[in-house]
Amino acid sequence: LKNGLASEKLAQDILRLEIGLTEQQQEAVAHYGEKLKELDPEIADADLVGAVDDFRQAKIQLRANTIARTELAIATANGREELWREAIKQEVLDVTELRKSWLAASYDVCPICTGLANQESIPFDSYWTEGFRSYQREPAHPNCRCTVVLDVVEG
Question: Would you state the torsion angle of the CA atoms of residues 87, 93, 95, 98, taken in this order, to the nearest 10 degrees?
Answer without folding.
Answer: -110
